[in-house]
């Protein structure tokens, strides 16, 4: 590893500086800066399609940015070689927005997969670890089911168990609450908090449910238009000091964030003569 | 892990089956099958023309396979083909005035060495040579002779006979 | 992932695909050492691509042998050489028909399932999930299937040939009355282990490699949509059939 990549101790585990990305000619990020402090839960919120998943993919090196620096535990991710990237990923848990369970394997084997691939554990110990994690997400009884036999919410919880099975230093949750009933949601919320409090795991939480985020997160970033639109503790944001937060948390259609994906004039699209009123589209 | 085990066992069985098939093909349907004959002794025969005779071509007596061609060389002095025949030990009672001829099975079939037993009380020993041989009958020669003389001469008629016999048999 | 879908109908795109496929071959070969750590996965894939293709291979082998027996017996009888039926069946099978027909069946049976499986894994983020668990999908998903193709094909071809010989024997000897001893002794005299049987095995391994390479490549690079997977599956069959026949010509011309 080069000197430039040597870990430097800061209290930010993930440091994003000047991140710029364009996908298909659309600007997703425009010189974004963002810090994720160690041992804290940082929530990332923002309108749909704003690039939250893309940001997580940048942080884990699945997607290269056009410009900018992303330091994770001191390593600049875009410059890492594949081997170094894999070493780093072994310390990162990632919950996919669509679960992404391996359809060939049972629930048990899915959760056991990272352990089997990287550690030579005795079967007994491996079993205990896997069952403990499954118990934590309330699915120990489903261990022998195949992923196709799970509901969406159950699959999400199995994916969560898989993401935390190696007790990583950093966990990225991409919308962990979608499709969960209130009971499961509460349990998962508690689990995220507990992992953070007891093991000091740093978490990045992408979610839309502000009530849930408010109970779990230490710090919230609101991303819109390729930049950080607002940030602060959940309480600060809830007070709604800017247009962005007022609109986002108040759930109003009109505001700085357009509800509509950029489009032509609505009436013209439907074949009517243009009306005086135009949609808030750019 | 019962699942994984059964894959491994199944895969093992599949590979075994594949190799069994390969072993079958290699040993039962190829010339390897002819090496099984165990103990053999060698006889020599010289021919002026061996035609399409090849290594491992069969040696037959009365239509029964008794051995195979083990070597074909050109005798540099006599300028004849010197052929070595490995004969199965089971057939060691061959009179030493037996003759060897090269025949074709069918019209276009493969050539083989046919042995005509003689009447001598003495038997061939390992390394002995056939004194009487009849070379391969060339279809072209035969046709040519027909065209020239109208009918084959008696000697050639004799030579053609065993081949014709054989034709009917096969 | 590129958003533009490959259109093989254009010559330039087709050439680009061939090039990309060749580069992919080097990546696969490069991933072999790593994939040996997942040797169990390779074994599992030999089961899926090999053992699961057995039934179709055996059935087709039997019928191909029977048809060959019938046709050749009929044709060779006209020249008084019916005794050579077994020999010609065996030579045709070992040198050409066994490897080629098995490869085409293999492309349809195992190749398509490899493409569809990997394509769906791509579409459902399973490959990305492996990446995130620090498991290289090239070594864990692609290379084991590639190796399994190379291992399974020669075995399948041997099984195919054995059954075809059996089928030819049934037709020629049992039905048409050819002498049993004549059938076998002509065959054993004229078929050589090395030039016929073993060369056929090498050929089969090469065909297995080509079919598996194309199948894995198509699956790996498919656009992550159901339409993309469907196209990729079709392309696997078309491209691997063409590749097998072309390679067959090249190998026959230069190796014999
Ligand atoms: N592979 C891709 N190629 C081109 N554009 C893409 C690709 N992936 C995402 N995008 C675009 O990038 C933008 C951000 O996508 P992303 O998935 O990060 O959104 P998100 O914030 O996670 O939204 P959601 O809350 O709905 O999950 C979207 O506008 C999308 O159209
Ligand atoms: Mg998303």
Characterise this structure.
The complex is a heterotrimer of chains A (282), B (170) and C (256). Chain A is of the alpha/beta class. Helices cover 35% and strands 22% of the residues of chain A. In chain A, helix 4 (123-136) crosses helix 5. The radius of gyration of chain A is 20 Å and the shape is globular. Chain B folds into two domains: 1-30; 36-144, no CATH class. Chain B has a seven-stranded mixed sheet, covered by helices on one side. With 256 residues, chain C is mainly alpha-helical. In chain C, helix 7 (137-175) crosses helix 9 (193-220) and helix 9 (193-220) runs antiparallel to helix 10 (226-255). Chain C has ten helices and no strands. The A-C interface holds A 24, 60, 62, 86-87, 89-90, 92, 94, 96, 98, 100-103, 113-114, 117-118, 162 and C 3, 120-121, 124-126, 128-136, 140.
Give the structure's gist in a few sentences.
The complex is a heterotrimer of chains A (282), B (170) and C (256). Chain A is built from 10 helices and 10 strands.
Highlighted features:
heterotrimer, A: 282 residues, alpha/beta, Rossmann fold, six-stranded mixed sheet, four-stranded antiparallel sheet, 10 strands, disordered N terminus, C: 256 residues, mainly alpha, 84% helix, elongated, binds adenosine-5'-triphosphate, binds magnesium ion
The distinct ligands, each listed once, are: adenosine-5'-triphosphate, magnesium ion
* Overall geometry of chain C: elongated
Which series of helices and strands of chain C comes N to C?
HHHHHHHHHH
Tertiary shape of chain B? elongated
Structural class of chain C: mainly alpha
Largest sheet of chain C: none
Task: Please state roughly what percent of the residues of chain C sit in beta strands, choosing from under 5%, 5-15%, 15-25%, 25-35%, 35-45% or over 45%.
Answer: under 5%
Distance between the termini of chain B: 60 Å
Q: pLDDT average of chain B, as an integer?
A: 77
Which structural class best describes the helix and strand composition of chain B? alpha/beta
Oligomer: heterotrimer
Helix content of chain B: 25-40%
Q: Helical proportion of chain C?
A: over 70%
Distance between the termini of chain C: 43 Å
Mean pLDDT of chain C: 91
Question: Biggest sheet of chain B, in brief?
Answer: 7 strands, mixed
Number of DSSP helical runs of chain B:
3
Question: In the residues of chain B, how many domains can be counted?
Answer: 2
SSE series of chain B: HEEEEEEEHH
**Count, helices of chain C:** 10
Number of DSSP-assigned strands of chain B? 7
